[in-house]
């Protein structure tokens, strides 16, 4: 197994882990509406944790970059890319995921959230990422973003 | 019966800086750290912050419009003093860029007041202050609005018992800038390129309530942050040796005397090693001849074991190396 395929496999596992957590958080038998609400709430928590530190434009830039990267494996997210990255506009994501089945929506959101987490980790390191997101996002703490210091 | 206030002095955690400051930073003081871009202002601020901040004595670092916070966090992590575990526990970063971009100094002040009231920090950093200045200027703010902003900030922070630092980019020290008047401490970082070497100097232009060491003092920025080299007499005192800086005391290993303090010098680590060596040789010759002035002294006679502290100028000296 090559390093690239190993990393891709880890990314898939982490994304699936996040998707499973989202599904559990939405509740048993949850429909698209509840699932999307859960996903949006997670992103709002992220926004709340990071905006005071890096500013709304910083969070928006991370979000848009994550969308751009996640589209490679989740093409349905392409339609969620809206506007200029000055704020984290969740409306596009919300509309796009609401049109999917719950399973597809959480899978796409899992990839996007993992990409966001990984991107932040490459910029400021795994330990600081963990520190900043510790209070709002427990499930991702089990995954290990690429640490730029390592 | 009189009871005078005793000003507590805080150890900065920057090697050599406390000696230059005259015994550390006065608690609740309002300080300005100024200098050109890239001279180490943000690094100095972070180093002091991580050294001083504790859960009982928390710090808030307000970022205005200077370096983007993501980049600042990324690069400052490369220094050993950066402690990720301290973030959101004893150190809190607050971004004010949106308020600053809107050009509303009152709003920025309001945000600072809210955050200070919420977290009761003992240490407050505003980086960078020039951003706030420019914001005021570009939005047609009358000059005294900025003056009021700084004055209010200073009064507020002192009454909130917070030791405060404004980090400002390349102020012109010859300006009659009101910030200089209001501040209790004025720390200037300078840098110049000499041949292919970066020469860094720190100068404490003002430190109310205590006798700081005048003049330019060399410093370096390494993996552990800034390291300041105070004059030899201070180094000897802090080493617990001869308090009067007697010439009989030997300099620490691998340290050579410079006109503004001790410089580390080794052929492997110091690109200016030849100059350091030459200057040390001249200093020793000057000491042996008991000549007070510098330079134009050629090595002659038997060199002393080390130059007396009295031969080290304490006033401002030229930044140029002898050639």
Structure summarized in a few sentences:
Chain A is mainly α and 150 residues long. Chain A has 5 helices and no strands.
Tell me about this structure.
The complex is a heterodimer of chains A (150) and B (323). Chain A is built from 5 helices and no strands. Chain A is an all-alpha fold. Chain A has one domain (9-142). The longest helix of chain A has 39 residues, at 32-70. The relative contact order of chain A is 0.17. Chain B folds into 2 domains: 9-228, P-loop containing nucleotide triphosphate hydrolases (Rossmann fold, 3-Layer(aba) Sandwich), CATH 3.40.50; 254-311, no CATH class. Chain B contains 10 helices and 13 strands. In chain B, helix 3 links the parallel strand 4 (59-63) and strand 5 (91-95). The longest helix of chain B has 17 residues, at 143-159. The A-B interface holds A 51-58, 62, 123-125, 127-128, 130-132, 135, 148-149 and B 63, 68-70, 73-74, 77, 84-85, 87-88, 93-95, 97-98.
Strand neighbour order, sheet with most strands of chain B: 5-4-6-7-3-8-9-10-11
Low-confidence stretches of chain B: 239-262, 265-274, 291-323
Largest sheet of chain A: none
CATH superfamily of the largest domain in chain B: P-loop containing nucleotide triphosphate hydrolases
Largest binding interface between chains: A-B, 20 and 16 residues
Distance from first to last alpha carbon of chain B: 60 Å
- H/E element order of chain A: HHHHH
What percent of the residues of chain A sit in helical stretches (DSSP H or I)?
55-70%
Q: Helical proportion of chain B?
A: 25-40%
CATH class of the largest domain in chain B: Alpha Beta
| Cα-based radius of gyration of chain B, to the nearest Å | 21 Å
CATH architecture of the largest domain in chain B: 3-Layer(aba) Sandwich
Order of helices and strands of chain B: EHEEHEHEHHEHHEHEEEEHEEH
Computed over alpha carbons, the radius of gyration of chain A is 14 Å
Strand content of chain B: 15-25%
């Amino acid at each position: 197994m090559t390093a690239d395929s190993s990393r891709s496999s880890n990314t898939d596992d982490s994304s699936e882990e996040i998707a499973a957590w989202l599904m559990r958080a939405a509740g048993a038998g949850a429909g698209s509406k509840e699932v999307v609400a859960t996903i949006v709430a997670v992103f709002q928590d992220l926004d709340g944790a990071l905006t005071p530190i890096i500013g709304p434009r910083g969070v928006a830039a991370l979000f848009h970059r994550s969308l751009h990267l996640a589209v490679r494996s989740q093409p349905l997210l392409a339609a969620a890319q809206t506007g200029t990255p000055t704020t984290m506009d969740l409306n596009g994501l919300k509309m796009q995921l609401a049109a999917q089945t719950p399973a597809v929506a959480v899978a796409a959101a899992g990839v996007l959230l993992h990409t966001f987490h990984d991107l932040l980790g490459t910029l400021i390191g795994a330990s600081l990422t963990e520190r900043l997101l510790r209070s709002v996002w427990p499930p991702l703490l089990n995954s290990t973003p690429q640490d730029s210091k390592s | 019966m009189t009871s005078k206030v005793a000003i507590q002095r805080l150890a900065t955690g920057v090697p050599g800086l406390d000696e230059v400051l005259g015994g550390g930073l006065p608690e609740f003081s309002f300080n300005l750290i100024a200098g050109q871009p890239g001279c180490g202002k943000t690094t100095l601020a972070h180093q002091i912050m991580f050294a001083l901040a504790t859960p009982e004595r928390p710090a808030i670092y307000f970022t205005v419009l200077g370096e983007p916070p993501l980049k600042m966090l990324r690069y400052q992590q490369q220094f050993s003093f950066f402690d990720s575990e301290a973030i959101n526990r004893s150190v809190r970063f607050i971004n004010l860029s949106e308020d600053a971009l809107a050009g509303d100094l009152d709003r920025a002040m309001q945000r600072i007041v809210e955050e200070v009231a919420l977290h009761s920090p003992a240490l407050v950093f505003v980086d960078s202050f020039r951003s706030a200045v420019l914001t005021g200027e570009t939005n047609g703010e009358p000059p005294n609005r900025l003056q009021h902003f700084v004055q209010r900030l200073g009064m507020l922070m002192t009454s909130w018992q917070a030791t405060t630092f404004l980090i400002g980019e390349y102020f012109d020290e010859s300006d009659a800038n009101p910030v200089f008047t209001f501040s209790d401490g004025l720390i200037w970082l300078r840098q110049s390129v000499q041949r292919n070497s970066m020469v860094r100097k720190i100068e404490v232009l003002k430190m109310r309530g205590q006798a700081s060491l005048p003049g330019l003092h060399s410093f370096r920025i390494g993996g552990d942050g800034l390291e300041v080299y105070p004059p030899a007499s201070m180094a000897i005192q802090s080493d617990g040796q001869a308090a009067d800086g007697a010439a009989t005391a030997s300099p620490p290993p691998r340290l050579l005397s410079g006109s503004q303090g001790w410089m580390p010098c080794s052929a492997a680590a110091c690109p200016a090693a030849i100059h350091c060596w030459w200057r040390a040789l001249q200093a020793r010759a000057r000491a042996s001849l008991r000549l007070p002035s510098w330079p134009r002294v050629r090595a002659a006679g038997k060199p002393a074991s080390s130059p007396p502290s009295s031969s080290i100028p304490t006033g401002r000296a030229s930044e140029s190396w002898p050639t």
